[in-house]
Amino acid sequence: MSRTRVTVAVSQAPGKHPAKRALEESIVAALLLEPDVEVSVVPNLYDLGPDHTGRLFLESVKGDMVVLSWLYPRAAFWLLDRDGIKGHFGETKLKPPADDDEEAETDADTPVDQPPAIGPAGTIPDRFIYTLDLRDSNRYEAYVAEIKRIVAECRERRAAKARERAANSPAIIQLGLSLSKPEPEDVPAPQKAFTPEALLAAPAGRRWYPVIDYSRCTNCLECLDFCLFGVYGVDSIERILVENQDQCKKGCPACSRVCPQQAIIFPEYKSAAIAGAETGAVGGLKIDLSRLFGGDVGDALAAAVEERDRELVNAGREAVGLSVGIPKRQADKVQGPKDDLDRLVDDLDNLGL
Question: Among 86, 259, 273, 312, whose Cα sits 20 to 30 Å from the Cα of 196?
């Protein structure tokens, strides 16, 4: 496989929705004709277990990679990271039409002081992973054009690195030899055993577990304190991790609601913020207008407590309400000066909303 050849993996939607299947198949058919692309199809990323052939294939890819799925790009990237498929986050130009105005508003916000994120664990390979959301367009041409742009970007980045190595590499002029070990021209190709049929083997079943975005996580451990089902733990250097994902209760995103940095993702949850969408902030705290206008979302902490109590009762245990695992920033909260959110709520109250 050439160093400029980019692996593209299309992750199928769960189920057999005809429009989704048609979009996936059109993208794959178009990319089969591209000389700089190696395209494969795998089942839904979120459902792939550690022994599934599709996941083993993704783990075997060493170079730059594009993954198309029916998940938000942030969710897909950190889902791959938790599976040991690591790389640098590749920025994409393909966005949903509504994102333009929202991005402009987010960029205009005044930065706020926040604790530093702990970042991903381990060594990050010198490659980029681009994650595209198949819900951003219903035209296969949009994805093919973006993949071609990414391939060109990867090729130029590698060429720039090669020029930099050549410029910084001392040479023995008399012999015409370089003192440094030359870079290999090729990267290992995925194993030949990964046939299309093996890649598309049905996963064992639908799964439900949290994914941690370590670019946001500050290791506050509030999720560990709040979850009473043993899902979370810490590693040898006290970093939070998902330790027992099968202990997570299907459909319950309570721990995500109490995370102060919105670092816990449930990729297939119905709420965009919990599913991994990029969210704006005011004063460091995301404002959900449906809560302010009396929608059915309710207060995040109250919703989290209710969800946790429901799952405790379903498991034959006693509900604990607010007595266990309440975030320290909520318990014993001292009344201080009003911030931007307080003033916004007061203004809405004054308007009779």
Answer: 86
Query: Residue 154, exposed/middle/buried by CB under 10 A (0-12, 13-18, 19+)?
Result: buried
Q: What b/e string do you get for 27-65 counting C-beta neighbours within 10 Å, with b at 16 or more?
A: bbebbeebeebbbbbbbbbbbbeeebbbbbbbeebbbbb
| Domains identified in the chain and CATH numbers | 6-87+124-199 (3.40.50), 211-350 (no CATH)
| 68, amino acid identity | L
Question: What is the Cα–Cα distance from 269 to 277, expressed in whole angstroms?
Answer: 11
First to last CA, the chain: 61
Q: Note the pLDDT of residue 340.
A: 58
Distance between CA atoms of 191 and 62, rounded to whole angstroms?
11
DSSP string, 219-274: ---HHHHH--SS-EEE-TT--EEE--GGGSPTT--HHHHH-TT--EE-TT-SSHHH
In 3-state terms, what secondary structure has residue 104?
Answer: helix
Distance CA 259, CA 254 (A): 9
Predicted confidence band at 205 (pLDDT cuts at 50, 70, 90)?
Answer: confident
Sign of the torsion angle spanned by Cα atoms 25, 45, 276, 217: negative
3-state secondary structure of 8: strand
pLDDT tens readout for residues 10-28? 999 998 899 999 999 999 9
Q: What is the pLDDT of residue 326?
A: 79
Residue 21: how many CB atoms within 10 A of its CB? 13
pLDDT of residue 97: 73
